[in-house]
Design a protein that fits this description.
It is a single chain. The chain has about 190 residues and is of the alpha+beta class. It has six helices and four strands. A four-stranded antiparallel beta sheet has the order 2-3-1-4. Helix 1 runs antiparallel to helix 2, helix 1 packs parallel to helix 3 and helix 4 packs antiparallel against helix 5. The model has no long low-confidence stretch (mean pLDDT about 85). It holds the Pfam family DUF5698.
Length: about 190
């Protein structure tokens, strides 16, 4: 019975690690993926050795399957909480909403605004790139100013330059300077 419980627990640990490694690979975070992959291999080998050396019972198979399913669920929760990466939003509006543009820019979002022609006349489109951790905040702001906005979001794999990259570099440089000054004062 202890083996069955261990198989269940190993799956609950293994599958979230597998999920994170996959996410890191998709996001081109290869160094992180390799570290997590090494941990994944250790857990996997431990789990396989339990399965292969133990008695092949229905209970062990059920524990393996349930642990796998629960591990997928837990891995999804962990990935959502980590919110790795960025999301690009295309927001279509019936009229140019300067208040919304100003609010988004003041809150640190990089926004590019376009005018286009739709079926029923001119439309206004905003392109916004944000960290995944700020998605909900962005959606709430848009909803507050433009409840009928048409929104499409997607995850970009690569980007170069632009407002967001510059601001991230500035924040990183400022953080490094703060760390250096606190290290020299200590």
């Amino acid at each position: 019975m202890l083996d069955v419980l261990l198989i269940f627990l190993v799956q609950i640990i293994f599958v979230p690690i597998l999920t994170l490694r996959t996410v890191f690979m998709v996001k081109n975070e290869n160094k992180k993926a390799s570290v997590v992959g090494a941990l994944e291999a250790v857990v996997y080998i431990f789990g396989v050795s339990l399965v292969l050396t133990g008695e092949q019972s229905i209970a062990a198979m059920i524990a393996y399957s349930l642990g796998f399913g629960i591990g997928i669920y837990i891995g999804g929760i962990i990935e959502t909480k980590l919110a790795i990466g960025y999301t690009a939003y295309n927001v279509n509006l019936p009229s140019k909403n300067q208040e919304l543009l100003d609010r988004l820019r003041n809150d640190g979002y990089g926004v590019t605004n376009y005018t286009g022609e739709g079926r029923d006349g001119y439309r206004y489109k905003m392109e916004i790139l944000t960290k995944r951790s700020r998605e909900r905040e962005l959606e709430l702001i848009i909803e507050m100013y433009e409840p009928k906005a048409f929104i499409i979001s997607y995850e970009p794999r690569k980007f170069k330059g632009g407002f967001l990259v510059k601001s991230m570099k500035k924040r990183l440089k400022k953080k490094q300077q703060q760390e250096q000054s606190s290290a020299t004062s200590a």
